Amino acid sequence: MTTDCHISIAGLTKRFGTNTVLNDINLNLTPGERVAIIGPSGTGKSTLLRCLNFLDRPDAARITIGDLSVDAASATRTEILALRRRTGFVFQNYALFANKTARQNITEGLVTVRGWSRAKADARADEVLASIGLTDKADSYPAALSGGQQQRIGIGRAMALDGDLLLFDEPTSALDPEWVGEVLDLIRQIADGRQTMLIVTHEMQFAREIADRVVFMEGGRIVEQGPPAQIFDAPEDERTRAFLRRVT
Ligand code: ADP
Ligand code: MG
């Protein structure tokens, strides 16, 4: 899963009506870098992740993933699909297809976005199900799975694409406390493989543990960033300090 792919987000601005939700965000990730994004609710963290693969269309941005560089002003459908092939997205609420089994949830994107044959996608899904420890749930529907198992399938679906960048949007915040541990364990395992990832999380201890860099956002801007020890133990900006006092 390691990659030599540099990632750059340049001049990302996003408005909803007159509300500027992201204001000139610039962020680069080196290959294998694990970056945690923290910040108050409503600050644009989800929108930032969604803009990276055009689930929300940025008003301005140049998104570069390796040799693919897409400018929001001129992005074509082909370029957007190419971006999506290179990024896996893990949603807060899992966003599984209720009428598809665990295996089908994993194969769906491989068949429709990647154009893989059913047989090849099934083989990849079985490999992923084994690595997330859910082989025995391959034919189960989401309703028959615990929240933790559903989110592990959500993560497996993103992993199966074997993209250059994994995006996690508060992957444990919809879970009952009893399921949080198994999901964090799985993300830890992926992080240990030096998968390049951007993870929005409210689990500060987890961010400290797995991230190479922590980015604090407020009001649609990056306020401060640095190694976990610097951000958590010696934040320089008063807004970062105030946020950390509230959440820790
Ligand atoms: P966070 O993930 O940091 O909590 P969001 O990215 O979800 O923040 O939201 C940032 C701001 O953008 C909020 O003010 C939110 O109400 C607004 N917003 C998000 N999505 C939409 C949308 N689809 N339409 C209008 N406003 C939106
Ligand atoms: Mg959010």
Automatic annotation (TrEMBL):
Residues 7-244 form the ABC transporter domain. It holds the Pfam family ABC_tran. Signal peptide: none annotated. One of its GO terms (molecular function) is ATP binding. It comes from the Bacteria. Keywords: ATP-binding, Nucleotide-binding, Transport. CDD domains: ABC_HisP_GlnQ. InterPro entries: AAA+_ATPase, ABC_ATPase_HisP-typ, ABC_transporter-like_ATP-bd, ABC_transporter-like_CS, MetN_ABC_transporter-like, P-loop_NTPase. Belongs to the ABC transporter superfamily. This is Amino acid ABC transporter ATP-binding protein. It comes from Paracoccus zhejiangensis.
